[in-house]
Design a protein that fits this description.
Layout: E1 5-13, H1 20-29, E2 35-43, E3 49-55, H2 65-83, E4 92-97, H3 103-106, H4 110-121, E5 129-133, H5 137-140, E6 150-157, H6 161-169, E7 182-193, E8 202-211, H7 225-237, E9 246-249, H8 255-268, H9 275-282, E10 298-300, H10 303-306, H11 313-327, E11 334-339, E12 345-353
Parallel strand pairs: 3-7, 4-5, 4-6, 9-10, 9-11
Antiparallel strand pairs: 1-7, 1-8, 2-3, 6-7, 8-12, 11-12
């Protein structure tokens, strides 16, 4: 296995539950936590109502969206401490949150949030808590120091109309079921990352990111962001694309996303196509196949199960990958997570799994 950092535990606050095994079971079974919200609807381009399907985690209250995001973060960290009790306090906490220029991020009270996180995991007051607003995960990951365990988290809630409208304008929301509705969710995720190079059966082996200014335009041009991000993550892990056995992504619901992923998959795993078609697809002279081709990686996603998770999307994908590698019925050693939640950017993560010899995993 490559160096990287061991993933020693994951806690969730999502529609599927609090443990990554529950998230994997829901995604694998195709369970839908989304239900049509009778009170929420947006207008589409023609002025017709566009129904919204939501997957709330927390009960409705009047605390406001920022307080809801804070509670999701604290709940996820409490789940991490409950499912994977750490042998010693963490060295630092890093938390990815929605941008400050959104209603979800502008009202977050950092002092209150830090207190809630320290209570959730019984952390000493000396443990620093750093908030990252609207930053893609590939830019946050280099920040945690190499020594000691770092708690890396993310939280977001996109259940209100203002958030839904903003994400729709940015081309971020996924069409749910058919082309007549949008899936909105919320989630909190916390991941415990051990020291660089420390042993562990599951490792975050590499990550990468790349801009994608033409999201949604895969029908008219070849998009580069997903391939560039995945290639950077695999290179950092010292792996080729052919080593990937499982792919976690949510580019599977909106038509433009489906075509974007088909383009990327045809370029990342070109041996699945005959040589002439492979070259035509890479040159943008032929459409990639929309149906999965034999011999490709297994594909899973969480958006169809629990809706769009906003800033928490990438770490929710990592949690799903962890659940698949550790608890999947079929063995797998390498998972690639591809996230498109940050507008204009694609992020990729690589997880490696090596089951412990003669022991059980959590």
């Amino acid at each position: 296995m490559s160096a990287g950092r061991p993933v020693t535990g994951i806690g969730l606050a999502c529609a599927a539950g609090t443990h990554p095994a529950a998230l994997y079971a829901s995604a694998e079974a195709g369970m839908m936590s989304l239900a049509r919200d009778p009170e929420l609807a947006l207008a589409d381009a023609g002025g017709d109502p566009l129904p919204l399907y939501t997957a709330p985690v927390l009960p409705a209250d009047d605390g406001g969206v920022p307080a809801r995001v804070e509670t999701l973060a604290a709940s996820a960290l409490a789940a991490l401490a409950r499912h994977f009790p750490p042998p010693e306090p963490a060295a630092a906490v890093h938390l990815v949150l929605p941008s400050r220029d959104t209603a979800r991020g502008e009202g977050i009270d950092e002092a209150r949030l830090a207190r809630a996180l320290r209570r959730a995991a019984a952390l000493p007051a000396t443990v620093p808590v750093t908030c990252h607003y609207g930053e893609p995960l590939d830019r946050v990951l280099p920040a945690p120091p190499g020594d000691g365990t770092v708690l890396l988290g993310a939280a977001d809630s996109v259940l209100d109309l203002e958030a839904a409208a903003a994400l729709l304008d940015a081309g971020r929301l996924r069409v749910y079921r058919d082309e007549n509705g949008l899936g909105l969710g919320e989630a909190g995720v916390f991941v415990a990352l051990g020291p660089e190079g420390a042993p562990g059966p599951v490792r975050l082996a590499g990550w990468g990111g790349a801009g994608e200014p033409h999201a949604g335009a895969a029908g008219t041009r070849v998009l580069e962001g997903t391939v560039a991000a995945a290639s950077a993550a695999l290179a950092a892990a010292g792996l080729e694309a052919e080593a990937v056995e499982v792919v976690i992504h949510d580019l599977s619901l909106a038509p433009g996303d489906v075509l974007e992923w088909a383009q990327a998959a045809a370029r990342l795993w070109p041996r699945r196509l005959d040589e002439r078609r492979r070259l035509a697809v890479q040159a943008g002279e032929a459409d990639p196949p929309l149906a999965p081709l034999p011999g490709g990686p297994e594909e899973l996603g969480a958006a169809a199960t629990g809706g769009d998770a906003g800033a928490a999307s990438a770490l929710r994908g990592l949690a799903l990958a962890w659940g698949r590698l550790v608890h999947g019925l079929e063995p797998a050693a390498v998972a690639l997570v591809v996230d498109a939640a940050c507008a204009g950017r694609r992020v990729a993560l690589v997880l490696e799994h090596e089951p412990p010899q003669g022991g059980e995993e959590p």
